[in-house]
């Protein structure tokens, strides 16, 4: 599990985050019928050893407002694309159902409750893996295909959302997605202040969010323990963070400028080596010698030689 995955697991251990994720990014009519006050995280002791060993993410349940019907939500965190994620999801749901059967956690009609498997992806490239296990199975002729399993998961690909769409959602999860999409040097003061303001009502969630931001964005600049020791309440923590927002943004901008300058210097040196290599190749010096002198690869020098010859 990467640092990002661990951070996400921490944040989505809070019902407020799960509620924001579902209401903001699950675009289904039945969402309006969910009773979010009943959100309950499934305790690790509830699931079997097999499920604990194979599933390292969070499971929640909640009920519909008008009937005692539970919806189990599996949240799988991914920062890299897994072609066979739907197979993993199929296995997780199967294990969960086995536990529900053993625990006699069935509906009033003696049936299994529905499951909403969510894959929350925060990687750089867009997710292109099949979201239904059926699409991973080789085409089967005739009626044999009806015996192939079908199991889909709901993909929430953070990078696929436009900033305007995220802005319209206006909750903590959408702000988190915006932070993930935005280079640090371009993060706005308003966005950071909104995050700080939105999480201030829940001190535990506020602290978890600060720990996440501190690890991923602030490079451990914030002494979180001291921050809470010095503050008397959530309002004081919020005020202290607000005072630091401008400083953090200036530091990020300075880091961005330094990185850009360093990249420019590297590009300049590379361009100079290419110019030298071209002159050497035009003079008939063997590629192996040019490579030793310029540290350019043989493949790049062969391309340069073709341009010189033309």
What does this structure look like?
The chain has 310 residues and is an alpha/beta fold. It has a domain at 1-137 and 146-175. The protein has twelve helices and five strands. It has helices at residues 3-11, 15-25, 49-54, 85-102, 163-169, 172-181, 189-198, 203-216, 224-230, 234-282, 287-294, 298-309; strands spanning 34-41, 58-64, 70-78, 115-121, 154-157. A five-stranded mixed sheet has the order 1-2-3-4-5, sandwiched between helices. A hairpin with a 5-residue loop joins β2 (58-64) and β3 (70-78). α10 (234-282) packs across α12. The radius of gyration is 26 Å and the shape is flat.
Brief sketch in words of this structure:
The chain is 52% helix and 11% strand. It is α/β, with parallel strands linked by helices.
Record keyword descriptors for this entry:
310 residues, single chain
What is the residue-mean pLDDT, rounded to a whole number?
A: 78
Low-confidence spans: pLDDT under 50, at least 5 residues? none
Note the overall shape.
Answer: flat
The number of helical segments is 12
Secondary-structure map with pairings?
Layout (H helix, E strand, L loop, with lengths): L2 H9 L3 H11 L8 E8 L7 H6 L3 E7 L5 E9 L6 H18 L12 E7 L32 E4 L5 H7 L2 H10 L7 H10 L4 H14 L7 H7 L3 H49 L4 H8 L3 H12 L1
Parallel strand pairs: 3-4, 4-5
Antiparallel strand pairs: 1-2, 2-3
Helix pairs in contact: 1-8, 5-6, 6-7, 7-10, 10-11, 10-12
